[in-house]
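User: Hi! I'm working on a homework problem where we have to compare a predicted structure to a textbook description. Could you give me the structure for the chain below?
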Amino acid sequence: MLALSGCGAAGDDDTAKGADRRAAAPAQQDGVASGSEGAEKGAGGSAATKKPNPSAAAHVIRTASLSVEVRSAPEAAAAARVTAEAAGGLVADEKTEQVDAVRASSHVVLRVPQGEYDSVLRELSGTGKLLSRTSTAKDVTDQVVDVDSRIASQRTSVARVRKLMERADELSDVVSLEGELSSRQAALESMLAEQASLKDRTTMATITLNLSEPKPHAKAVADDEDGPGFLDALSGGWHVFVTVIKWLAMALGAAAPFLAVAAVVVVLWQRLGRRGRKAGPEGE
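Assistant: Happy to help. Predicted structure tokens:
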């Protein structure tokens, strides 16, 4: 009986332990599930709170065109040149020409740093009467990144061909590799030129300034087209009067010697006539 009771107790213990293990299994599964959920929540929370990386600096080509009416086109062009140079820029092109007898015009192309683009544009717009203004901004960031990537790849390719040339033994291989190297080097130089052009255009903005002088007043032109008025007639009469006086003075100056001689002759004639009349009565 003691042996049977001991075996029964041992069996009950095993049964109890098995039950405990079966009960603990779902709990462990729940713990694993809750742990995974917590990990997912933690990952989700960190992903939600994580800020995106700042984007690369944008590469933008800025251009503007201004048409301004000023009193003196050459003076305004000189002032624009000073403004561009003070901002760290330069004058890429300048041309001044005479439109007619009294008016001139100037065409100036300025290159200024991107940071001074807006301030220079405002200053140039205020130099006179603004007739027109256009500005454009073209984002070429993708193009810049693409060119940089292709340059890196091309440099690697050129270096690879040079290594092959160092290990080539056959003359035909050397000739073939030299041709390939020349072709790849030319492509690399073309990409470098494109990169330099993009860098120049994204670093310096371009402003085209057209300066013109105002036309004569419309009313004055209309008066000229309608014909002479009272003031024009008065001015013309005075001009005629002065001209007549001048001609009379000229004629008098030309005849003065002859008039002097004629005056002397007349005086002598009068005196001789008086003497003759006096001698006549006395003789009688």
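For your comparison, note the following. The first strand starts at residue 60 and ends at 69. The chain has seven helices and five strands. Good luck with the assignment!
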